[in-house]
Amino acid sequence: MTFIKKTLASSIAIAAAAALAATTAQAEISDGEVRIGYLADMSGTYRDLAGPGGLEALRMAIEDFGGSVNGAPIQVYSADDRNSADVGANTVREWVDTRNVDMVAGMVASSVTIAVTNVLKENDKLGIISGSAASSITNEHCSPNHIHWVYDTYPLANGTAKAIVDQGGDTWFMLTADYAFGHALEGDVTRVVEESGGEVVGGVRHPFPTDDFSSYILQAQGSGAKIIGLANAGADTVNAISTAAQFGVVEAGQQLAGLLVFLNDVHAMGLETTQGLLLTTGWYWDMDEEAREWSERYYERMNRMPTMVQAGIYSSTMHYLQAVEATGTDDTATVREYMMEQPINDFFARNGRLREDGRMIHDMYLAEVKSPEASTGEWDLYEILATIPAEEAYRPLSESQCDLVQN
Amino acid sequence: MTMIFGVPLAVFMGQLLLGLINGAFYALLSLGLAVIFGLLKIVNFAHGAMYMLGAFATLLGMRYLGINYWAALLLAPLLVGLLGMVIERLLLRRIGHLDHLYGLLLTFGLALIFEGTLVNFFGVSGARYPTPEALQGGYQLGFMFLPVYRAWVLLAALVVCLGTWFIIERTRLGAYLRAGTENPALMQSFGVNVPLLITLTYGFGVALAAFAGVLAAPLYPVSPTMGSNLLIVVFAVVVIGGMGSILGAILTGLGMGLIEGLTKVYYPEAANTVIFLVMILVLMLRPAGLFGKEA
């Protein structure tokens, strides 16, 4: 009974807070606590790019903020979504129903994210997505209840593919993971290659996941294309790149283009295998003094350098807490609106701003993986070749299918 | 250019060779499973984990003890084989009289524990093991570039497979083994230490998996989940070959590698499922598997 009473009481409190916010924008923080849920793959394929490291980044943000907002303590819950949409949605539903969580952070596999954002929308809570790639999250799946922070497939194709065609890599062979994410990325890349004056001469769709890429690499070699585009992620990309190294693809004159490659992937494969690989990233730990400073603090706690996703979790949590502090409430609409009004410039984002579709746009970077000779340490892996300005990197609002934009 | 069903002959030949190399892997792994099932009647779900441990022993041995690849080829299977013997003594023996299902669940649980523990320490991205210097580079065969290391894997796997087959089917020790599992009481009365024989057999079976792990270390990223990805395919190979048939495991392993290789050329989307399709067909037509004896 106390549970029902509590839920009832908190519902009334939320309703009252929302009503108050609408009139005076002076609402209180619900239950006297800011409650944040961290949902990510903690044990599977995507563990290293977000996982426990992302949770640590979230905790760092809260500590740096002082542990409380306007006197209200900040409470963190965390869970492993096991890359399952069902597990993710049920966890968040439970958090919202029984613990009155205000904001959910993390979120990696796009399928889980889309399921979770539906739950958030039904319950009018806020989600800040840092790990997912699908650009549809702020396009056809956009909602007033979530924000997409670090990157998506649109700038990945835009950055890497365009730069490579401009450098003379005009014939492509696509190696695509045979599921929604791979198809979307392949489509984006094909469009960018053709628009830049190049041509996709062939491709193969491999099952997800695949351990042995030798056969596909042989087909790519046989195609004679200058560039082998990897429209896959995680272990698949890692396997494809290392297999290509064994078959002497680069020595024979072809180049690889990694369309979604994380720092931990490159670290795992080593520079011998990955040197010369071009990739697009939303952030790199060694890109400037501010980034380095934060990353070194992170390194002391995790003994690894952070990925762009982990840095993004810190950055977005900080921005959220500042909004809660400034507005004095954890009400979703009020906080989101304040977050949209404030420009974002921190150690993570340059020229960042939040658009009405929920996309946080910021400068992206074209990077090249260093050679073993050029690298000075275990984590000295990328050289930043170019900055892709925020407005050019992401899908323009004029092409958006998000109904928040059309209104 | 000569074409085979729309694919140039050269590409076709290359794919066949790669299929054979992958098949050698399947053969090596399914051989260990077949030995353990055939002689001990244990459905060893920890086999993938043992393969993974072999690769990890190789990696960590190099990183922390400076053990090179050639020494690892011997030491890693030995170490994992010993671990297997401890597991057999302490755990598997106690449930030997129960239904097969208990052994399956126990070994599956063990596999999860090994995997989870290593994920906790090393993450899931895995690490690279460098190709040994003597095996770097490749041969230009005309129709394809064959990395030396892959040729070595094919050779090493075939030699070990045939050696195992020879020991079990053609030597006195093998005869004891087969008799010991057929009628342990009788063998015991002849003065043969059957429990020791069983422990050694399990150790040998998992050592084969660890040997495959050492061979795999320079090919794939060494990661805690590498074994579980492969395990189901290898089980399908064993079922197709006939549970417990040594020769069946070797020949089916090679054959499935070839079939999978060809699928990758003609319809890559089905490459992961083709082996299971074959399994269904075989089970419908010959329920005991291609080389299995009808019970």
Write out the CATH superfamily name of the largest domain in chain A. Response regulator
> What is the oligomeric state here?
heterodimer
CATH topology of the largest domain in chain A: Rossmann fold
Largest interface, chains and sizes: A-B, 37 and 42 residues
Our Rg estimate of chain A from Cα atoms comes to: 22 Å
Largest sheet of chain A: 6 strands, mixed
What fraction, in percent, of the residue positions of chain B are helical? over 70%
| CATH classification class of chain B | Mainly Alpha
Mean residue pLDDT of chain B: 90
Number of helices of chain B: 11
The CATH class of the largest domain in chain A: Alpha Beta
* Separation of the first and last Cα atoms of chain A: 43 Å
Give the number of domains of chain B.
Answer: 1
Instruction: State the low-pLDDT regions of chain A, or none.
Output: 20-26
Q: What is the CATH T-level topology of chain B?
A: ABC transporter involved in vitamin B12 uptake, BtuC
> Which band does the percent of strand residues of chain B land in?
under 5%
Secondary-structure class of chain A: alpha/beta
What topology, given as strand order, has the largest sheet of chain A? Answer: 2-3-1-4-5-6
What is the spatial order of strands in the main beta sheet of chain B?
Answer: 1-2
Sheet of most strands of chain B: 2 strands, antiparallel
Q: How does this structure look, described?
A:
- The complex is a heterodimer of chains A (407) and B (295).
- Chain A has 407 residues and is of the alpha/beta class.
- Chain A has 2 domains: 33-151 and 287-362, Response regulator (Rossmann fold), CATH 3.40.50.2300; 154-281 and 365-393, Rossmann fold (3-Layer(aba) Sandwich).
- Helix content of chain A is 45%, strand content 18%.
- Chain A is built from 15 helices and 15 strands.
- Chain A has helices at residues 2-24, 51-65, 85-99, 110-123, 153-166, 180-195, 214-223, 234-246, 263-269, 271-274, 289-302, 308-327, 332-341, 390-393, 403-406; strands spanning 34-40, 68-69, 72-80, 103-106, 126-129, 146-148, 171-177, 199-206, 227-231, 255-258, 278-281, 353-354, 360-361, 364-369, 382-388.
- In chain A, strand 2 and strand 3 form a beta hairpin.
- In chain A, helix 3 runs parallel beside helix 4, helix 5 (153-166) runs parallel beside helix 6 (180-195) and helix 8 runs parallel beside helix 9 (263-269).
- Chain A is globular.
- Chain B is built from 11 helices and 4 strands, in the order E-E-H-H-H-H-E-E-H-H-H-H-H-H-H.
- Chain B has helices spanning 9-40, 47-65, 69-90, 100-122, 148-170, 172-182, 184-189, 194-216, 226-241, 246-266, 274-285, and strands at 3-4, 7-8, 138-140, 145-147.
- With 295 residues, chain B is mainly alpha-helical.
- In chain B, strand 1 and strand 2 form a beta hairpin.
- Helices cover 71% and strands 3% of the residues of chain B.
- Chain B has a single domain, classed as ABC transporter involved in vitamin B12 uptake, BtuC (Orthogonal Bundle).
- In chain B, helix 1 packs parallel to helix 5 and helix 1 runs antiparallel to helix 8 (194-216).
- In chain B, the strands form 2 sheets. A two-stranded antiparallel ribbon of chain B has the order 1-2. In chain B, strands 3-4 form a two-stranded antiparallel ribbon.
- Chain A binds chain B through residues 43-45, 47-48, 178, 204-207, 209-212, 214-216, 218-219, 221-222, 235, 238-239, 242, 246-248, 252, 264-265, 267-270, 272-273, and chain B through 8, 10-11, 14-15, 18-19, 21-22, 116, 119, 123-128, 130-131, 138, 144-145, 147, 149-150, 219-221, 223, 225-226, 229-230, 261, 264-265, 268-273.
